[in-house]
């Protein structure tokens, strides 16, 4: 039975900051941010948006009434959760109007969460072929103002419906993975912002990719010629470039040029959105599907979540792939965003809603929003 991604949806907040303006405000040469880091714009969420509302928005863009009827599993991958007990998935039941005979939960392992969800959904569909699973990656990546990680922030969400006979991407059930206890990046429960050993995290990421690629070749007797495209977790677009470069000189020059050109197509959206944490690999997939993919191509996908877990797996683009997402809408959403000044971003960044907060619906420009915090409970509304 073929199992994989049948539909893919994306949501990005309506505001962004310009990376050249950020560089100037931080007294940094703009080339460092645009070339050295490889970013152009960074998505900035509103204070009344969080992992729940971002997730609701991407899922809402793809869920049909028939999908809702067939859903048996809902998994949300996030590391920006709003509650240490109740899952983001539970909040979504009302917002998305989902039937209650669903197993719904949240997975956390840094940027690996969505891949863990996707693999769990694969197993679920193999046992329940007539059902569907919804996997959502949702995050707000925050390091703090004037930190080295600030340029690698971002926010957004990717939702995927997993089913048999998928229209977009067939998962080949060929995968290698690894886990190590590594202190490259972490966010203690008391902190809204992450801590990172930046350069060390880059080294670990590249090490994981190299180890997994060696493992994959040995396990499946594979070579680079088995793949048309390599997609990477993209915390910032230079990071995937660094992993890809480990192949330079080791593989045929034409093949390397082809992989590099396909990688460029996969990072177009990330350049103008920033880090989605667990959604980043899947934003890269969507960018590739819209900007370069051809039916029948074989993909090698590298998922990495700090802490650290890595997985390298293969997938095949289906002939019907263009039916599985709303290209016009996604491009319009990216184009219609508004630029914020760096001052306005800094101000918004400091806004913290507390117990007792009530958000005035007149000030809300999004369909899903945090409406109130009452008795320390977060309450959401759909406009
Ligand atoms: P930094 O210290 O500001 O930057 O930190 P740098 O000095 O390393 O410079 C960055 C690059 O810009 C270098 O290129 C410079 O040469 C270049 P590279 O050597 O890397 O190829 N550069 C210039 N280029 C052109 N013109 C110039 C110029 N000046 C310098 N004038 C760092 C950068 C990424 C470390 C920082 O932003 C950071 O700590 N980010 C957060 C951590 C991170 O994203 N790590 C990625 C791997 S871990 C991961 O992917 C997991 C993650 O998504 C979390 C999760 O799993 O949940 C982060």
UniProtKB/TrEMBL annotation:
State where (3S)-3-hydroxy-3-methylglutaryl-CoA binds: 29, 143, 242, 275
Enzyme Commission number: 2.3.3.10
Q: Which residues form the Hydroxymethylglutaryl-coenzyme A synthase N-terminal domain?
A: 2-164
Q: Which InterPro entries match?
A: HMG_CoA_synt_C_dom (IPR013746), HMG_CoA_synth_N (IPR013528), HMG_CoA_synthase_prok (IPR011554), Thiolase-like (IPR016039)
Domain Hydroxymethylglutaryl-coenzyme A synthase C-terminal: residue ranges: 174-246, 262-350
Q: Does the keyword Ribosomal protein apply?
A: no
Recorded hits in SUPFAM superfamilies, A to Z, give: Thiolase-like
| UniProt keyword annotations, A-Z | Acyltransferase, Transferase
Say if the entry is tagged with keyword Transferase.
yes
Q: Which biological process terms from the Gene Ontology are attached to this UniProt entry?
A: acetyl-CoA metabolic process
Name the source's superkingdom: Bacteria
Catalytic residues (positions)? 79 (proton donor/acceptor), 111 (acyl-thioester intermediate), 233 (proton donor/acceptor)
Which family would the database say this protein is a member of?
A: Belongs to the thiolase-like superfamily. HMG-CoA synthase family.
PANTHER family named in the record: 3-HYDROXY-3-METHYLGLUTARYL COENZYME A SYNTHASE (PTHR43323), HYDROXYMETHYLGLUTARYL-COA SYNTHASE (PTHR43323:SF2)
Q: What is this protein called?
A: Hydroxymethylglutaryl-CoA synthase
To which species is this protein native? Companilactobacillus suantsaicola
